[in-house]
User: Which sequence fits this backbone?
């Protein structure tokens, strides 16, 4: 039991490493929490620093969810531990202990976790996310569409695993909550494009 809790706690600490803030410091860019949209995520890093730091931020945030999830999957831990690790990495990203509990919206970290959980599940969601962004040029809309699709897709692709589907659904609710302002702006046609 102790090892399970340690794995979940470690996933939270890994999630708390804010790629956006670290990349901006290395690049000599302003703190993304006080520039642009004030969100420490890849989209805001692109606004204030360009494509290269944004891509590194996106990969860093994705790896925070992907690596811990993949490891517990490979080691054969039960569904509740796998789900706990996924959720902890996401919560760490959103409320990072190392950065005053002010983190990003969590999309890349969640997508990374989904990819680590099941490559097809993750790949479909990432493809939907990317396709919607390419068509609409609205990053948040891609995230919202992929997030809405995730619970039903999890049920079909994860062998009807109730625990993992419940965790994916919880993560989806958290992501939608983090995008509540974006959803309001989308409804009135004021959401900014990439």
Assistant:
């Amino acid at each position: 039991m102790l090892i399970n809790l340690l794995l979940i706690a470690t996933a939270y600490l890994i999630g708390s490493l804010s790629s956006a803030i670290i990349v901006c410091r290395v690049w000599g860019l302003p703190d993304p929490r006080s520039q642009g949209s004030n969100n420490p995520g890849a989209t805001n890093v692109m606004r204030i620093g360009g494509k290269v730091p944004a891509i590194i931020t996106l990969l860093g945030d994705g790896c925070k969810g992907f690596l811990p999830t993949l490891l517990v999957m490979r080691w054969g831990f039960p569904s509740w531990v796998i789900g706990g690790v996924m959720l902890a990495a996401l919560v760490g990203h959103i409320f990072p202990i190392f950065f005053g509990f002010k983190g990003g919206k969590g999309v890349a970290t969640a997508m990374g976790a989904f990819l680590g959980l099941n490559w097809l599940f993750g790949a479909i969601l990432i493809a939907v996310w990317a396709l919607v962004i390419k068509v609409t040029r609205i990053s948040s809309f891609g995230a919202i569409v992929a997030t809405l699709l995730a619970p039903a897709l999890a049920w079909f692709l994860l062998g009807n695993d109730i625990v993992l589907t419940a965790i994916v659904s919880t993560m989806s609710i958290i992501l939608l909550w983090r995008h509540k302002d974006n959803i309001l702006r989308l409804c009135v046609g004021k959401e900014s494009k990439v």
Q: What stands out?
A: The first helix runs from residue 2 to 15.
